[in-house]
Amino acid sequence: MIKLENVQKKYQDGYVALKEVNLECNSGEITVFIGPSGCGKTTTMKLINRLIQPSAGKVYVNGKDVSHIDPVELRRGIGYVIQSVGLFPHMNIANNIAVVPRLLNWEEERIAKRVDELLSVVGLDPETYRSRYPSELSGGQQQRVGVARALAAEPSVILMDEPFSALDPISREQLQDELIRLQKDIKKTIIFVTHDMDEALKIADKIVLMKDGAVVQQGTPEEILRHPANDFVKEFIGAKRLKQVQEIPTAEEVMIRKAVTAYPTRGLAASIKIMESRKVDSLIVVNENDKLLGYITIYDVLNQFKDENKRVGDIVKPFTHTVMPNTLLTQVIDIVDEYKLAYVPVVSENNTLLGLVTRGSLVGHMSDIYPSNGIGV
Amino acid sequence: MEKYAQVFVERWHDLYSALIEHIILSASAVLLGCLVAIPLGTFLAKTSIGWIRSLSFTIANIFQTIPSLALLAILIPLLGIGTTPAILALFLYSLMPILQNTYSGFQSIDPGIIEAAKAVGYSSSQRLFKIELPLAIRYIMSGVRLTTVYIISWATLATVIGAGGLGELIVGGLSVYDKPLIFASAVLAMVLALVVDFVLSLFEKKLTKRENSKQNFA
């Protein structure tokens, strides 16, 4: 776990980079620092491996105060990936990845094995790439090597400073996906700095939003999207994304419009015929003006079937719950769930039946907003 | 025409000893220059104290602008005549180009590489010898090559303060108007410069071999 307590950073020229930062990054999670440029996100990250010293406050890595650890030792135990990749151009790929294990005096045999293993992990064929030089690789491949170098000595903490920002969109997507996949296995404590909200929402377990050297809000992507702390956060997230999350559909958008109905004057035998032909087990009862009266079920009809004089109107039961067309879907779901309803009628203010929200229509709506895109199907 | 060829045979003994003197004179000056300018350039590239940097470059620049004949003359009252003041003068000339190239070599390193080297846990001396020097060496070597060629040609002037070398034969030849001797000495100085340049270029290639093997597949 990484913990920053009352951390401040003031430069000699009086510039205050960090005002007072308190935050925690959980072990085995990806914590994303995000904010506009100059907000102090990179500064905050560099405090962790002591590339920058705080003016005040404490930084703890796995419970230890880093100011008591020799910076060179500390850094060998923390992986580091930067935007400009920073591979050493005079060393081949294998030697670049082997840098930290060599500094830690691993045996050559173990290093060679680890290099091949890591090249496979980041999706590069060891045979092909081991002895190439960084300049022979594309930007995306170079950053894969950068990630491999950071993982080489199995650090528990990895710092990533806008690692994918300089890549083309396709490589960026790929590397993001692979980071998520990789993290499932390796479960490192990752600090990831970015200015790209889409990237943050995609990979973060926790987002720390910063502005002007202070933390504005921290929480899971879901929390931040649902409860942005202030206008700055809202603006930074962007109206479009907020709308996607916060614009909850209404009952009207989800309901089916063609409910199977019957008038109260219908006979019971006729109503069974309707149920049979429409393959339903109940009918919504409305009058000639489509005003909602109630419902009948197949069981009610069969119970009273012997009495030939009875009509639908005699056995109709009123609805205990109805919703308005503008009722939010979340409330509809609550009602359906709480009272174990198979469906709930949607009525206008003057009690005219407009449609039904059924369990089937809810599932249909969900498949519209969460398209599978072929994943897992 | 025959005379021009014969002089190499007849005067070979003189030419040979002058050539050796010339090599010693130039090599000493360049080596001294390297010993001073490369560490100094490294320091200047790394120091954050601005005025030391500008002061050093100004001083090195001033030496560079003094006409060589004048500099040699100035050194006579200070160090007398002979090889030592000549080497000193040539050394002063070698400072600026080596210093400048060393400094540029370090400046040319991508700051991302330096940051990465720090962050993976190289100590500052490991960083210097394993990362920064290997990356700056191409610049440093080209500075050394350039300087050496200059110094070999300027060393012919050092004869005016009795430093010997091929310059002595040229000046001697001038005084008795021995054109073949002047010609032979000048040719030897030229050939020396060309050969040394070639040898140093091979050395430079060897040092930067791994970097030169770059091919861009990207």
From TrEMBL, chain A:
Q: Does the keyword Transmembrane apply?
A: no
Report membrane topology: Peripheral membrane protein
Locations listed in the record: Cell inner membrane
For this protein, the Enzyme Commission number is 7.6.2.9
Span of domain ABC transporter: 2-237
Keywords, comma-separated and alphabetical: Amino-acid transport, ATP-binding, CBS domain, Cell inner membrane, Cell membrane, Membrane, Nucleotide-binding, Transport
Q: Which residues cross the membrane?
A: none
- Major location, coarse class? membrane
What is one GO cellular-component annotation here? plasma membrane
Q: Which residues form a coiled coil?
A: none
Q: Which GO terms label this protein's molecular function in UniProt?
A: ABC-type quaternary ammonium compound transporting activity; ATP binding; ATP hydrolysis activity
Please list the residue ranges annotated as the CBS domain.
255-311, 316-372
Signal sequence annotation: none
- Which Pfam families does the UniProt entry name for this protein? ABC_tran, CBS
* Gene3D superfamilies named among the record's database cross-references: CBS-domain, P-loop containing nucleotide triphosphate hydrolases
Biological process, per Gene Ontology: amino acid transport; glycine betaine transport
Q: Which PANTHER family match?
A: GLYCINE BETAINE/PROLINE BETAINE TRANSPORT SYSTEM ATP-BINDING PROTEIN PROV, GLYCINE BETAINE_PROLINE BETAINE TRANSPORT SYSTEM ATP-BINDING PROTEIN PROV
Listed under subunit, the entry gives:
The complex is probably composed of two ATP-binding proteins, two transmembrane proteins and a solute-binding protein. The complex is composed of two ATP-binding proteins (OpuCA), two transmembrane proteins (OpuCB and OpuCD) and a solute-binding protein (OpuCC).
Q: Which family does it belong to?
A: Belongs to the ABC transporter superfamily.
The name this protein goes by in its record:
Quaternary amine transport ATP-binding protein
From TrEMBL, chain B:
* Keyword match Iron-sulfur: no
Bilayer-crossing regions: 23-45, 82-99, 148-170, 182-203
Compartments, record wording: Cell membrane; Membrane
Give any Gene Ontology cellular component: plasma membrane
UniProt keywords (A-Z) are: Membrane, Transmembrane, Transmembrane helix, Transport
Q: Which Pfam families match?
A: BPD_transp_1
What residues does the ABC transmembrane type-1 domain cover?
Answer: 19-200
- UniProt membrane topology term: Multi-pass membrane protein
Q: Which top-level group of life is the source organism from?
A: Bacteria
Q: What GO biological process terms does the UniProt entry carry, in alphabetical order?
A: glycine betaine transport; transmembrane transport
Q: Which family does it belong to?
A: Belongs to the binding-protein-dependent transport system permease family.
Record-linked PANTHER family: GLYCINE BETAINE/L-PROLINE TRANSPORT SYSTEM PERMEASE PROTEIN PROW, OSMOPROTECTANT IMPORT PERMEASE PROTEIN OSMW
Report what the protein is called. Putative choline transport system permease protein opuBB
Which species is this record about? Answer: Aneurinibacillus aneurinilyticus ATCC 12856
Q: What is the lineage of its organism?
A: Bacteria, Bacillati, Bacillota, Bacilli, Bacillales
